[in-house]
Structure formats: C-alpha cells, structure tokens
Amino acid sequence: MAAAAPAVIPSPSVLDSLSSNVNLVGGLWFVSSALLTTYSTTSFLKYQHADSDSCKIHVPNRLHLPRPQLLTLFRFGGSLLLGLLLHPDVHLISRIRATMATIPDFVLPAAFLTIANYANSIALNRIGISLTYTSKCAIPIFTVLLTYLLDGPTALPALPTLLSLVPIAGGIALASWDSPVFEAKGFSFAMISSSAQTALNVCSKKALAKTGLSGAEGQRAMVAVGLAITAVLFLLQKQPEHCVDDEIPPPSWLSLLAVTAYHLEYVLSFTFVRMVAPVAYGASDAVRRLAIIISGHYMFGHDRFTTVNVLGIATALVGAMAYAITSHAF
C-alpha cells in the first residue's frame, strides 16, 4: 500500500513573501473593510429574527444585551482567541503568558479601544454607515486639540495642515445638515468614537514603542484588556424584564463572520501601517472610508442623501486626505 502523501504546508518563506507584499496587504485591508466588515457589522446590528415571537428562541438570559454591547463583547473575545490560536508558533501557553505580561503597558490604550468600538457600534446602529464614517474625518481635528493640550502650541503642525481642518469641519457639518438619518445621540456617539480613536492612536504608539512589540502582538494585549472591561460591564448589566428582539443574538454564522472580519481588518491594518509611509497610510485610510460609505450605500441602500449631504461627505474626505499629505510634507 502506498504511503499517504504528506500534507502540504506553506513554507515560512512563502508566508513571509505574502505578508511583505504591500499591494496584497493593502488591497486585502481595503476589501476586508469595505466589504466583509461593512456587511457583517451592519447585518449583526440590524438583524431581525424571522420568528415574529423571537423571544421564544432559546437563549440564555445573560445574553440578552443591546446589540452594540454584544458586538463589542464578541469582537474582543473572538479576536483574542483567533490571535492566540492562528499563529505559526505552536507554543500556545508561552504566547498566553507573553500576552499577560504585556497587559499593564496597554491598559490605557485598551480603555480607549473599548470606548471607540462600543461608541462606533452605537453610532452605526442609530445613524448608519455614511454619517458615522464621515464623522471619523474629525479624527485629525481631535489629534490637533490633543497635541495642543499635551505638548503646547509649539508642537502644532504647520499652517497648511491646520488649514486642512477647515474642509474637514465644514464637510462634517454639511454631511449632517438636514440629513434624514441625523440624530443627536447617534452623532454624539460617533464623535465620542472619533475622539477615543484619536487617544488610542497616540497611546498605542507610545505603548508599542516602549514594549517593542509588533502591531499584532499589541492588538492582542489590547483586546484582552478590552474583553475584561466589556465582560465586567456585561456582568453588571441589568437584565430586561421583557424580551426585546434587538437583545436576541443573531445566528452563530453571522456572529462568527463579524468576529473574523474584525480580527482580519485590524491585523491587516497593523501590518500595512508598518509597510508604508505615514502619508500613504493616512491617504489610504481616507480612501478606505469612502469605499466603506459607497459599499454600505449599495449593500443596504437605506440612506438617502441630499446634494448638500453628498458634498459634505466628499469635502470631509478631501480634507482628511489633505491633512495626511500636508502633515508630513511641511
């Protein structure tokens, strides 16, 4: 009897070659964000059970949570598990110990990561994809404000960079002006997410520089802390007296897709940012937001915008690209 053929496993050189291909990594980041994450996240938040009496579905009471909180819990837990298991190094215990040892350096970034993710989920659930991701263009404004507060006026960027904040602010205002999906609470959470994301960018860079970890290793430590924070809030959550369909978890396949998309997007993002210049990353991120807005509109198509709203979205995105370019050119 002929011996069984050995399993074909990609060699480390092949994996290294693929992970060092900037076009491949950047393209996968764009596609995963615009298609996989956009579809899975919005579908998770908006999923409605076909059974009109969905409260009869057998679900443990402790899983009756608002969708944004449940999505955050699933994302952190699933991403941590995938980060620990999907690794070329088979020594799982040592990887867990290494992650635990780095947690103290990532507590503050993880707190901002939790706020940014949770607030973003609430914003998506209330005001939709387009307005939420247009609001993300405010991150450069918050970055300048945080820089001024921490390091003083001498640390502010050059005048052309500061001027690029004008179309960003104006674009956000126009995108929100009389928008059919605008809501004060949802827009406020979008702004909270943007400000928390700004603080996360600053704190995580300092933590990564201090520890010398890779982006993926730092992300694993942050989601571990984020999971602990979310789990505590989860346990303290007061359970509703009556079942609400929005608090019934979506099907398992959709939850798994949302977790996988989240983990893939963040790993690709951390990989891509180390491969390109900051100006290229900033410009790519602005284009990525535009791709998310367009794909979300075509996938779900329930956001009708006026000409003023469309002009505002375009203006804010152009301002974000101008900020990325001028901040490293002057």
From TrEMBL:
Annotated TM spans: 27-47, 68-86, 98-119, 131-150, 156-177, 305-325
**Origin superkingdom:** Eukaryota
Q: What is its main location?
A: membrane
Q: Which InterPro entries match?
A: Sugar_P_trans_dom, TPT_transporter
- A Pfam family matched in the record: TPT
Instruction: Identify the keywords attached in UniProt to this record, alphabetized.
Output: Membrane, Transmembrane, Transmembrane helix
Keyword Transmembrane part of the UniProt annotation = yes
Membrane topology label: Multi-pass membrane protein
* Annotated Sugar phosphate transporter domain residues: 66-323
Location of this chain's protein in the cell: Membrane
Q: Which GO terms describe its cellular component?
A: membrane
What name has this protein been given in UniProt? Answer: Phosphoenolpyruvate/phosphate translocator 2, chloroplastic
Origin organism is: Seminavis robusta
Lineage summary: Eukaryota, Sar, Stramenopiles, Ochrophyta, Bacillariophyta
